[in-house]
Amino acid sequence: MRWARPAVAVAALAAVVWRLGTGPLLDGVRSLDARALVAAAAIFFVTTSCCAWRWKIVAGGLGVRVSLPAAVAAYYRGLFLNVTLPSGVAGDVHRGVSHGRDVHDVNRALRAVVWERGAGQVVQIALTICVLLVLPSPVRSYMPLVVVALAGTALGVFLVDRLHGGSRWRRARSAVAADMRDGLLHRNALPAVVLASVVATLGYAAIFLIAARTAGVSAPVSRLLPLAFLAILAMVLPSIGGWGPREGATAWVFAAAGLGAGRGAAAAVAYGVMVLAASLPGALVLVLAWAARRRSSGRGRIIFRPKGTAGA
Q: How far is CA 161 from CA 122, 144, 166, 178, in A?
């Protein structure tokens, strides 16, 4: 399983290169200019701030408070690690563990990260379904079946929960219910979490639209928006820093929509580079934290000197 995620991602990217060649991927990089990168950085700041605000709300509800400036800095750091390390989730784990050490409760801090990210993905999926039901796309005819399948899955989970009577299951259910009640569902948290998640999802979709325009796709926004949501949704699949399934899925949906698989791959690559560039402040946060630890460890050292020697 340790090698499954990178293997799937490499296979997806290799399939794109095999079918389309390296030309569309290089075109996606060459098409970028300063205006696109600045626009992506500005939107990325808004989306990151919304996600950090969501994390602050959920963490506060679970009793592991974090200030908004610290949350924004930690979120930038986590996103930078996510898009540069193979696992794609290393930044979230690092964010949870670092916050847990600061508040002396790693378990609860990690749970806050899991619930915060999970809530964001649930809202993203719901928003994607709404967009795909309303706007034309290659998968629009399948969306009623998707809704029915999701409803059936929810019903199945509910029935299993009701029929399962083990004590361990009841303890786990109680712990999950308590976390959801305290971190997500109380009246001050739920509207803010939904709003932050909607704005963040729309922000990522806007970055993808800019990437598509930069890559030379001139289709109207109403036609591109469903493809953007599908491309972003593909990033929840196993990947290497977000690369792999995103390029494969985007190439497929663009081809199915009559816009050309090459244009889709170029747009996906441009999007990946734009997000990577926009997350670079997270590298600065890492460097500053490393320097602060070095200074702290230097001050904490005890220097022993032989008798009779002078010291400043």
A: 20, 26, 10, 16
Q: At what angle do helices 90-103 and 106-134 cross, to 10 degrees?
A: 140
Q: What is the pLDDT of residues 183-222, one digit of tens each?
A: 888 888 999 999 999 999 999 999 999 999 999 999 999 9
Q: Which of 126, 154, 129 lies closest to 139, judged by CA?
A: 129
Nearest alpha-carbon partner for 265 in 11, 39, 29, 7: 29
pLDDT of residue 36: 95
| 3-state secondary structure at position 7 | helix
For residues 91, 92, 95, 100, the Cα torsion angle rounded to the nearest 10 degrees is: -140
Provide the 8-state DSSP code for 226.
H
pLDDT band at 310 (very low <50, low <70, confident <90, very high): very low
Burial class for 66, CB neighbours closer than 10 Å (0-12, 13-18, 19+): buried
pTM of this prediction?
Answer: 0.88
Give percent of the chain above pLDDT 90.
59
Q: What is the DSSP string of 86-146?
A: TTS-HHHHHHHHHHHHHHT-HHHHHHHHHHHHHHHHHHHHHHHHHHHHHS--TTGGGHHHH
